[in-house]
Design brief:
About 50% of the residues lie in helices and about 15% in strands. The protein has about 270 residues and is an alpha/beta fold. Strands 1, 2, 3, 4, 5, 6, 7, 8 and 9 form a nine-stranded mixed beta sheet that branches. It is globular and about 55 Å long. Bound molecules: zinc ion.
C-alpha cells in the first residue's frame, strides 16, 4: 500500500471512529451565519421565494441542506441545535436512514424533510450494470422503482416530497452516471409529482456560492462557507452530512463493511 493510501486510510479511521464531536463547532458556525445577517432557510423555502420572485436582491440567504446518508442520531442532534437557534433547514433521507416521525417533526417545525434517492445506483448494483448503455436500457425499471418508493414514502409520512435530492454512490462515480438522471424526463417528473431536484440548473443558478462538508482533515469543499459569509456573498448554499460532525462508530463500521461488500459484489 502506498504512502498516500495509508494516510487516507488513517484519515478515514480517525474520522469514522476517533474524531471528537464537532457539534459545538456546528452550533458556533450557525451562530456566526445568523450574526452576520443571513436568513438561513431550507431548499424548499428558498425555491418558493425564487419562484414567487420574493428573493430580495439585498437579502442574504444561507440555504442549508442535510443529506442523512448514514447517521440519523447525529442528524437529530444537529436538528436540536438548529431548533435552539430558530433555524429551519432541509433534511433528505435515504431508505436506509428513514425516520418517519423525525421527518414529520422537521416538517411541523417549519423545515423540510424529503427523499434522498438512489434507485439508479441500486438497480445498477443489483443487476451488475457496468455501462451507461446497460443502465439506459434498465431506465424503465429504475423509474418504476423510484415511483413506487416515493409513493410509499408519501403514504407513510404524509409529506409532499415534491423536492428530492440525489444521493451519490460509488457506483454512480464508476458509471459517471448520477441518480438525478432518473428525473431528466419532464413527463416522468410530472407523473411522479417532483417539482425540483436540488441539482437542477434552474435552482443552482440562483446560488452564488456552493459548499459541502468533507472528511477529516479538510472538513470543507471547496472551502469553509464562513469565508463566503464573511465576504457577504448574497446566496450561500451549504450541504452537510451528519457523519462528518460526530462519529458513530457502530453505524460507520456497519456502513464501511457494507460498502466493501457491495464493491466486491459489484466487481465480480
Ligand atoms: Zn448522500
Amino acid at each position: 500500500m502506498g504512502r498516500t493510501k495509508l494516510i487516507n486510510l488513517w484519515y478515514r479511521i480517525y474520522a469514522d471512529f476517533l474524531m471528537p464531536s464537532r457539534l459545538l463547532i456546528y452550533s458556533r458556525f450557525l451562530e456566526e451565519v445568523l450574526r452576520r445577517g443571513y436568513a438561513i432557510c431550507s431548499v424548499a423555502r428558498f425555491w418558493e421565494k425564487i419562484e414567487k420572485g420574493q428573493a430580495h436582491p439585498r437579502e442574504k440567504y444561507f440555504v442549508l441542506r442535510h443529506d442523512v446518508d448514514t447517521d440519523t442520531a447525529t442528524a437529530k442532534a444537529m436538528w436540536q441545535i438548529e431548533q435552539a437557534l430558530g433555524v429551519r433547514s432541509s433534511y433528505y433521507f435515504r431508505l436506509t436512514t428513514l425516520d418517519i416521525s423525525f421527518m414529520r417533526d422537521i416538517a411541523l417545525s417549519g423545515g423540510e424533510a424529503s427523499y434522498h434517492y438512489e434507485e439508479l445506483a441500486t438497480v445498477a448494483k443489483q443487476n451488475h450494470l457496468k455501462s451507461r448503455d446497460q443502465v439506459f436500457r434498465e431506465m424503465p425499471t429504475i423509474r418504476k422503482l423510484f415511483h413506487e418508493n416515493l409513493k410509499i414514502l408519501r403514504e407513510k409520512s404524509g409529506l409532499p416530497l415534491n423536492i428530492v435530492a440525489s444521493h451519490g454512490d460509488f457506483v454512480n462515480r464508476k458509471l459517471k452516471m448520477y441518480n438525478w438522471e432518473i428525473l431528466k424526463d419532464g413527463d416522468f417528473r410530472k407523473t411522479v409529482g417532483v417539482d425540483l431536484e436540488v441539482y437542477d440548473d434552474v435552482f443552482v443558478r440562483n446560488i452564488s456560492r456552493r459548499h459541502s462538508d468533507n472528511l477529516y482533515p479538510s472538513f470543507w469543499k471547496p472551502e469553509n462557507p464562513l469565508q463566503a459569509v464573511r465576504a457577504e456573498a448574497p446566496r450561500v448554499y451549504v450541504l452537510v452530512h451528519p457523519r462528518h460532525w460526530r462519529t458513530n462508530p457502530k453505524v460507520n463500521f456497519v456502513d464501511n463493511v457494507h460498502r466493501v461488500f457491495e464493491g466486491v459484489r459489484y466487481s465480480l
